[in-house]
Amino acid sequence: MHNTPNQKKPELLVPAGNFEKLETAIHFGADAVYLGGEDFSLRARAGNFSIAEMEAAVRFAHGENVKVYVAVNIFAHNEDVRKLPDYLMQLKEIGPDALIASDPGMVRMIRRHLPEMPIHLSTQANTTNWESCQFWQEQGVERVGLARELSLDEIREICGKAELELECFVHGAMCISYSGRCWMSRFMAGRDANRGDCAQSCRWEYFLTESKREGEYFPIEGDEKGVYLFNSKDLCLLEALPHLIQAGVNSFKIEGRMKTTYYVGVVTNVYRAAIDRYWESPHNFTLPPEWREELESVSHRGYTDAFIHGEPKDDRLLHTFSPYRNYDFLGIVQHPADSSFAKVKVKNRFQVGDSVEIVSIGPTVRQVKIENMRDEEGNPLNEAKPNTQVLIPINGVPMEKHSLVRKKIEKIF
Q1: Is the peptide bond before 363 cis (omega within 30 degrees of 0)?
Q2: How do residues 344-393 score in pLDDT, each as one tens digit?
Q3: pLDDT confidence bin for 302, thresholds 50/70/90
Q4: What pLDDT is stored for residue 145 in this prediction?
Q5: DSSP annotation string for 237-248
């Protein structure tokens, strides 16, 4: 394994569904984040950012030397086209590093109204060959997010022939429809996935019916939790990172603007460590098993490497039950309050006597026993409740700001 001469270290691109997730992504090593405004983004039900919040986010990220890409990647209808110019002018004042688009008309409008703004083409555009990359480059696109259905060999060939930056997803939820182009949600729930309002109809449980047997539902083979015909496993290309780096991919993207802060922190932490370790010593690169175990700690549907080694066979892609996890996310360290206690923003209930884990950059995981607890005024507590801030004992364990606090659970969901 080796790095190509003059090759730049690939970018780690991380989702930022809100400001807290943005801060977490940056703390755990994102080179760039992507986010959406309240319009024109394919995650209409994510936290998203108002114009003022987006301005603050860009200012904060740039202060940390991290780039910000703003998604304007819906497939626009006429009413969207009419509103877009005013929105683009607002984005111009904010100054993100690039806009992510998928609709050809929106690419054209961005080029017209913001000629100096870099454009990144979304994976939703279904780019599967180097000729398409050339086409989009001629339209002014600087980076193409490749379709998720490509094999490693196909990615290598595209990297060898395309003359613009290339990005690919390496982790997160997969859509059963081709690169996320889907009309199922609109048909079944009246919510247009291609305009950011997916109802995730493919994740629902389905039964077989016969037209003359009204009210009779026949289960299709599954397990005790149900049958999920269209429920894709989640993507995990951690083991394939060295090959993708060698191929020449410029940016590795993590899916998840609607996922939790815990997910953002853990997944970013692992991929940051893997990229850095490979880049520093490609000939001696190994993946510690505990890194993969860290990825198992977040809620997911079972992992697949999808199409990276060719067409998926058997059950490599379909997941037969609902998401599961083996940790409760308890909170985020705000800052050490003094030499003995750290302040924690509480996400889920925990209490005195619990044994918890502190997840820090590395990834580094340390054990702490909650022997006592205080509220912000210093009063003793027996229990920490969500949406509060509490002080927990450090007990000699380093707890930098943004560290994640979690507790292992016995039952896996």
Answers
A1: yes
A2: 999 999 999 999 999 999 999 999 999 999 999 999 999 999 999 999 98
A3: confident
A4: 97
A5: -TTTHHHHHHHT
The CATH number of 11-178+231-304 is 3.20.20.70
User: Average model confidence (pLDDT) for the chain?
Assistant: 87
Report the amino acid identity of residue 251.
Answer: S
Question: Contact, 15 vs 34, CB < 8 A?
Answer: yes
- Tokens matching residue 402: 């943004």
Question: How would DSSP label each residue in 18-73?
Answer: SHHHHHHHHHTT-SEEEEEBSSS-S-TTS--B-HHHHHHHHHHHHHTT-EEEEE--
Domain 327-408: give its CATH architecture.
Beta Barrel (2.40)
Give the pLDDT of residue 274.
Answer: 98
Judged against a pLDDT cut of 90, whether residue 131 lies above it is answered with yes
| Structural domain boundaries in the chain | 11-178+231-304, 327-408
Cross-strand partners of 364: 360
CA distances from 57 to 21, 30, 95, 271, 305 (A): 11, 14, 11, 23, 33
Joined together, the tokens standing for residue 336 give 């050490």
Question: Can you tell me the distance from the alpha carbon of 246 to that of 55, in angstroms, rounded to the nearest whole number?
Answer: 36
As beta bridge partners, residue 251 has 11, 167
Give CA–CA dist 28/274, Å, rounded.
13
